[in-house]
Amino acid sequence: MLKKSVFCFIVFLTSCQFAEKEKYLISANSLGNKYIFSNLKNGMPRQYDEKGYRIYSIPESGILITQFKETYGIINKTFFYKSKDGKLIEIKGIPFQDDKTSLNHNKIYAFYGKDMTINFPKFKDTIGIQIITICKPQDFNSLNEEPFMKEIIATHITAEDFTYKKLIEMRAKCNINQRAK
User: pTM of this prediction?
Assistant: First the structure.
């Protein structure tokens, strides 16, 4: 029985696909939603650290466009605040669907896993979008309602339209419209 259990466990592990390890660098003390748009030719070039982690340096705007393709499988994500002098302070990552009531309400977390893709069949393109919310647990629901993603999906823009400037303008417009309500 033990041999069968060990065998099944080994088969399970060898059949699992592991995603590339990922490290997210976020401007110190920055809160709110961070958006990573992947698989874009005009994005930031792929960057890895010395341990083989993908590096996602998210600017203060909260929007990063990268050339990395989406990664699938068992994930290994780490999140850090990065100070101006380069010092890293880890932020604990929590899958967004996890129960938030047991978390320390005075602590800031990186809620992740609300990912999506936009397909452009005509151009045979796919854009991956990761949303990471940096906040205290009690603030998650209000931040999770930002209308920016709805605007992106509703506008039917093409892959070529995914420029940093265009996305910054769209997000600002959505935030102004939200405040006006």
Answer: 0.82
